[in-house]
Structure to design on (262 residues):
């Protein structure tokens, strides 16, 4: 089973007037990720948060994307599946016509915490 | 002092989220790890390790270094290492199933339990990716 099938689900996508796209995402607390990260002590892996951002970007452009570079990705708050299972991802996407890549600037949060800020390119 | 070389003694991650097989060599300021990509890892997609999987492998390599040094200094359990920041990560290509990644970790500044490390990952002689991390080691 892939991460996309097992770890998270994108429940909604909204285009805002300022150009931002806002996604609502739920994390599966029964994902097998938590069997290994960490046994008896589930913590949402930072890289799975990056994978969610990529998944949202893929849904927005309607094709698969690979993270080609990360200029900066900060993990601001430790996320656990019991507390951070309903997330909002806010994103701006800027296509680079020259090389076909997309610059993605995103942040993941819920009502209480900011979890991840991401700036990188995908193609 | 007896030293073990089992990765289970150096990092707390386990299947299906274990992304380092061995610490090949280590000294105080650097280490080299290996990881062979198998299809039971959860960060596989279309027969390749996802970019996120490479990032995780790099971070676990840095964490394994911290765990290796902690064990050398008498710690009985592997410390938990978490990623604080990824910077200037650059992917050359996604590695495929059965390829063996070899990652070199070089330590930079360490302040208040946050260590900056530079990671370079190769498959054979070919560079696959590089990046800089801030790793938080929990006591």
């Amino acid at each position: 089973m892939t991460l996309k099938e097992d770890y998270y689900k994108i429940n909604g996508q909204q285009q805002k007037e300022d150009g931002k796209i806002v996604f609502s995402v739920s994390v599966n607390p029964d994902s097998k990720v938590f069997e290994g990260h960490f046994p008896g002590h589930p913590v949402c892996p930072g890289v799975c948060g990056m994978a969610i951002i990529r998944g949202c970007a893929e849904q927005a452009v309607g094709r698969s994307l690979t993270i080609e570079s990360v200029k900066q990705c900060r993990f601001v708050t430790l996320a656990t599946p019991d507390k951070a299972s309903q997330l909002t991802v806010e994103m701006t996407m800027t296509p680079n016509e020259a090389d076909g890549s997309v610059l993605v600037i995103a942040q993941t949060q819920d009502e209480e915490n900011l979890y991840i800020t991401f700036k990188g390119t995908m193609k | 002092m007896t030293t073990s070389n089992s990765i289970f003694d150096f990092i707390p991650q386990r299947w299906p989220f274990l992304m380092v097989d061995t610490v090949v060599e280590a000294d105080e300021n650097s280490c080299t790890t290996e990881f062979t990509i198998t299809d039971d890892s959860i960060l596989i997609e279309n027969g390749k390790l996802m970019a996120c999987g490479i990032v995780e492998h790099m971070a676990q390599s840095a964490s394994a270094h911290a765990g290796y040094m902690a064990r050398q200094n008498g710690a009985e359990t592997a410390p938990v290492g978490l990623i604080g920041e990824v910077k200037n990560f650059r992917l050359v290509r996604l590695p495929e199933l059965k390829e063996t990644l070899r990652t070199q970790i070089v330590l930079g500044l360490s302040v208040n339990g946050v260590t900056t490390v530079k990671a370079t990952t190769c498959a054979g002689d070919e560079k696959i990716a590089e990046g800089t991390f801030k790793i938080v080691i929990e006591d």
Remarks:
- Residues 43 and 80 of chain A are 5 Å apart (CA to CA).
- Chain A touches chain B through 33 residues (CB under 8 Å).
- The mean pLDDT of chain A is 96.
